[in-house]
Structures
1.
Amino acid sequence: MTAAVQPMVEARNVHKSFGHLEVLKGVDLQVAPGEVMTLLGPSGSGKSTFLRLINHLETLTSGRLSVDGQLVGYREDRGRLHELREAEIARMRAQIGMVFQRFHLFPHMTVLQNVTCAPIGVKGESRDVAEQRAIALLDQVGLSDKVRAYPQSLSGGQQQRVAIARALAMQPKLMLFDEPTSALDPELVGEVLDAMRDLAASGMTMIVVTHEMGFAREVADSVVFMDGGVVVESGKPEQVLRDPQHERTRSFLSKVL
């Protein structure tokens, strides 16, 4: 009898409120190691907030959220959560890569410097080690010729691929993508999705908030549809996208497919 595999991400009855606004209303999810999960849903459904809770960019209102068996940002004592010190949170957050809608590259740094600054500054790696990995990652995302370039000389798609390489430079166990193509011109979307496809094929655990249905259909292992702060429906892409069981899912997909 084989032992059960520990989830890479586990959410149990996760709630999040901002003042009187309840954004998440009891989310339960599990993401297995190596799984690619896509989160779909209308604006305001809580997808991005859920992603930000995973790496403790937002604090929980209630519930439990763990990555690789560890609560992120908290310790639990006699059933109560206590927030960790910022240095401890930063150490845990370093294991979780995140790519945002906007690229957030440092404009005064070259591409190479953008990718190496966190491994050197946060993890204390030597410049030689950090630069060797950065060059390999930039080659992986098709930007080996842009090592010395500055962000303003790059297209939006190239900048987002640098952002992906920068996140990977920290050697994370989990990658989070918050609508990584939504700020791009349509002709640039494909190059970013290709980089994400390659990353998925390498076995990286990924949670992707996206409206790119082709990516969800072709690359995802699971699709979760959220609305109104709850998980409405989840399952394999072929089931959720081709034969949704819930009327709210059908209505949403009829507008985006």
Note: The chain has a mean pLDDT of 94.
2.
Amino acid sequence: MMSVSKYCESIKRLRPSRGWARVLVVSCAVGLSPSATGMTLGEGLQVHGFASQGFVYTTDNNFFGETDDEGSLDFSELALNASYAPDPNILAVGQVISRHAGATDDGDMALDFGFIDARFAASERGYWGGRFGRIKVPLGLFNDIRGVPLARPGILLPQSIYFERTRNLAASADGMVLYGEHAWPWTTALLELGVAEPMIDELNTEPALLGADRPGGLQDRISFQGRLMLKSHDERIRFAVSSVQANIAYQPGPADPFAAGEIRFTPWIFSFQYDAARWGIIGEYARRRFSFSDFGPALPNMEVVGRSRYVQVDYRPALRWQLFARYDVLNTDEDDEDGEDYAARTGLPAHTRYAKDFTLGARWDPYPYLFLRAEWHRVNGTAWLPIIENPDPLARTKNWQLFSLLVSFHF
């Protein structure tokens, strides 16, 4: 296993748009620009961090605060992380973060991740090892580095796959991941397999999964995760397939119409990325299976399969500039894509079951340690709106726009 300093230097040689580096190097990834070095506080110890402030305005609905026709500064992130290598084959990595995102995140300091990475064996062709502790979930291209503003492909990740309203549930888990990488003459393969308990965020997860804040509570259960990635040796081309089986239990409260039930969420995500010198393309497709069982007559046993897909094209007209266009589509139920059957059955708006988002964005890096982003979304549908900020489905507006600015400092 290479030293932390060499590991960080290899990451810094990548373009900022390649912030998909594995979570093992998140402590370096927050300083991805060529001259951002963080702080070295001793042999094998490095510290990095970032602070970002966002502004969000929406023509209708709320996202990260009271944004409807007003605009809000209730979107900020502050983090400090460190990596320490007491041995060439052992690396300890951790990050604490304060994240404020309107009503969906209150800004309290929390442990984002903290784990021991141990390399068990290595050869000229590859290596294998494990991560143990609070790990980042290896799902899709961006889930395990979504907490680093510089690594994201926009201010907001594609919401059809990387939901903000269930971010805490998806981002981290307590458990272990075993991984291995092997190089052939024509490709390199990385396999990650994990078992962990998801981080239940009652504030957002319960409304997102059960439609409202219920009398009872959710409890985590042992869950499983995996990702297989094939990439070219220069890492310009990547294919990946990833999945999670998240198991969550519900314990009823007083006067609760629900019995003790189980929720199982199983997304399969297929990912592709190509990065050339001046332009790049990213695409992901997901099928998301939800099953609800044993909740009683108020919520009969059911299974719903949703679909998500997006494509994003990046263009770098100059060294410090990046532009992108993205089209992102979410359907909650693949058998009722327009939500008409749902509306006829429940009397609720059909647009709560889908969202089609066209986005334009830009990024400017005036200094190696500072970048600014701007992006505009035109959205048809409300399926990925945070329920806690938009509790009344009848009050949600079908066609709406979102404009956001972000300034971020990192070291």
Note: Residues 65 and 266 are 30 Å apart (CA to CA).
3.
Amino acid sequence: MFELKKVVSSLLMPLPALLIIGLFGLMLIMFTRKQKSGCFVVLFAFIGIFLIAFQPVSSRLLMPLERQYSAFFPVDESIDYVMVLGSGHVVDDKIPPTSELSRTGLMRLAEGIRVMRIYPGSKLILSGYAGGSEVSNARMMAKVALALGVSKSDIILLETAKDTWEEARQAAAFVNIKQLVVVTSASHMKRALHEFHSVGLKPYPAPTNYLAQSNITQTWEKYTPKGKYLEQTERYWHETLGSLWQNMRDWASNYEQKALKSAESQN
């Protein structure tokens, strides 16, 4: 189910979806008599690709999602655990450890270490499964954390969690009633907190990896389609699909629980 979810969501991302639409238009032009319809479909795909890589569109979509939670500032309570949620990585001994982590993963880890150092004695929880490689994402982050001066005794690894749902449930076994800070991308924070709240945890949010900005003044920077703006649109759409999946899963779970209670009451 996890792999199927990933494949389907990848195909539903804006760029792959628009490329598939454009390919369909070309097939109409080449193999049918509906050339005019095919040209319209191809034009639609080209315009769509332009818009999703256009800063006024991408930033306007993503920024409200990213700015729901402010940056983490010290709180009066003591913090026991700082948990960094997993992201991507590669395994390549020919490059430095900091380059083996994805940009998202490196920013999350850096923020986690920053928060951890505000609270001496706190532990750093690193999560993430291997994803097909021989090293888990949690272990790769630990490798970088050690290189950045974090003590090995202060690191806890959760190496089997595939997604945020599993990360929250594994974290609950460690945290219990202690204070926790969750570090993840700003765009992902709302979904992440939903998962942690569902297992009875109330962590402090520490969002990072902000992508969207509104104070871009250079005309050539703002109005030229760029890959980084395409990334913003894809991030927004990824979180939108994730929220839909989350709502459907919760609805199905609640429906199942109500059905079981109804069956038990009848018996």
Note: The first strand starts at residue 81 and ends at 84.
